[in-house]
Amino acid sequence: MKVLLLKEANDDGGQDPYIRELGSHGLEATLIPVLSFEFLSLPTFAEKLSHPEGYGGLIFTSPRAVEAVKLSLEQDGKSEVWKKSLREKWNAKPVYVVGNATASLVSKLGLDAEGASSGNAERLAEWICSGIPMESIVVYQKVPHPGIQRNLDSYYSEQGIPASITFFSPSGLTYSLGHIRELSGSSIDRIKFAAIGPTTARALAAQGLPVSCTAESPTPRALAAGIRTALQPHSC
């Protein structure tokens, strides 16, 4: 049974863990990226990272935010300073993350992260003590992947209507749903729509689509289990 995942491929070049896990459930998964990322405010970010004394900790909300640390330090010529002193100073403070994928990348920066098991931003906010003053900086923005329509056209022409489509963010839904509706036509009612988390599930529902599956946590195992259940006869 064929399922479609609207996400980018694994960064390390190996088999994507979602494809591997879904395959173990007898599902043939295909990835189509629907988002690209443009990094913003990197010099400002590097300056803030250079002054850990001014902050009580760090919160990383996505893998791209972690990537922005590396890029900002490289562009500002502070990679060695990070290794020699800044990393240790930040490690003396709490570092919070959303999800296991983000936690894994944070560890590669040499930082010890907390909160990976929270699963999504809403739970992390509850997990962190309320009332702590926050300062946020936007270091990237999401834009439509330039190959969305071409890749979806190719998938539908070669493999037909997928049994399930999983959305990994509200932005990904926004940029791809029009193409999916056009390609699916009246057969869209046969597709089981899945969401990686509650925020994306709400975005799906707001578009009038039935949410057949919301992963209990943003992990390959949880998503695969949910899709497998949704695809069983008479499931809802």
TrEMBL record:
InterPro entries: 4pyrrol_syn_uPrphyn_synt_sf, 4pyrrol_synth_uPrphyn_synth, UROS/Hem4. It holds the Pfam family HEM4. Residues 18-128, 131-224 form the Tetrapyrrole biosynthesis uroporphyrinogen III synthase domain. This is Tetrapyrrole biosynthesis uroporphyrinogen III synthase domain-containing protein.
